[in-house]
Design a protein that fits this description.
212 residues; mainly beta; 16 strands; WDR74/Nsa1; WD40/YVTN_repeat-like_dom_sf
Length: 212
C-alpha cells in the first residue's frame, strides 16, 4: 500500500468513515478511501519548500487527527504542527507552526480536538506535558497541564455533563484524568489509576452505555 515507508500513525475520518489518513516516516501524508480498490490514495500532501541550503525537509509524521470532515492536523518528530485542508486543492499545509524555540526541537506526540470547542486542541510532547492550543491563534499555547511522569502514548477526551476532561496513559503505567479548565496548573490532575502495564491506547465509552 505504501511501499518503502514506515507507518507511524493512522486516523479515521469521523464524518466520512470510509476515509483514513496515514502518516509515515520518510513518506508524505496520504488520505485513502477504503471503499475504492487500488494503490493510489485519494489525496496526498506535498512537502514544504526546501530549506535555505536547498535540502529537502525531512518527513517524520508522528500523529494525525481529523478536526472535521475536511481538515486534518499533524504532529511531527521535529516539533512541528501542520494543518491541512483537503478541499482547498492546496496540498501543502495551510498552517505550519512549531512549539519549539530556535533549534530546541522536541518530539510531539498525540493530538486530539476538544469535543466542546472546535478551535481548541490537546497535544502531548515527549516529556508528557499536555498543551491546550488555540487553532484560531496559529496553535498558540493557552495553558499546560502537568502530572504525567513519562512519555504519553495515549490521549483522549470526554465529556460528563457540562464539563470536559482529558485522559492520558503511557510509560508510567498510569491512566490520568485532567480538568483542562482548572485555573491552577498543578491542580489540573483530578484522578489517576495504576494499571500495571504501559498504556498504548485509550477508548472512552459513553457514560452508562455498558452498565448491566
Amino acid at each position: 500500500m505504501i511501499p518503502g515507508s514506515s507507518v507511524k500513525c493512522m486516523a479515521q475520518n469521523g464524518w466520512k468513515r470510509e476515509e483514513i489518513a496515514v502518516g509515515c516516516k520518510d513518506s508524505l501524508l496520504t488520505l485513502w478511501d477504503v471503499n475504492v480498490q487500488g494503490e493510489k490514495p485519494k489525496w496526498i500532501a506535498r512537502n514544504l519548500p526546501n530549506d535555505e541550503l536547498d535540502l529537502q525537509i525531512p518527513i517524520f509524521d508522528n500523529d494525525v487527527h481529523f478536526l472535521d470532515a475536511n481538515h486534518l492536523v499533524l504532529t511531527t518528530g521535529y516539533g512541528d504542527i501542520r494543518e491541512y485542508d483537503v478541499r482547498s486543492g492546496q496540498r501543502r499545509p495551510t498552517i505550519n507552526t512549531s512549539l519549539a524555540k530556535g533549534s530546541d526541537k522536541q518530539l510531539l506526540g498525540k493530538i486530539v480536538r476538544s469535543i466542546q470547542n472546535e478551535y481548541q486542541v490537546y497535544l502531548v510532547n515527549q516529556e508528557g506535558h499536555i498543551y491546550v492550543l488555540d487553532r484560531k491563534k496559529n496553535y498558540a499555547v493557552i495553558k499546560k497541564l502537568v502530572g504525567n511522569r513519562g512519555s504519553v502514548r495515549a490521549l483522549s477526551c470526554f465529556t460528563q455533563g457540562d464539563a470536559e476532561y482529558v485522559v492520558t496513559g503511557g510509560c508510567d503505567r498510569h491512566v490520568r484524568v485532567f480538568n483542562p479548565n482548572c485555573e491552577m496548573q498543578k491542580s489540573s490532575e483530578i484522578a489517576h489509576a495504576y494499571v500495571k502495564q504501559k498504556v498504548n491506547s485509550i477508548l472512552v465509552a459513553p457514560l452508562g452505555k455498558y452498565k448491566e
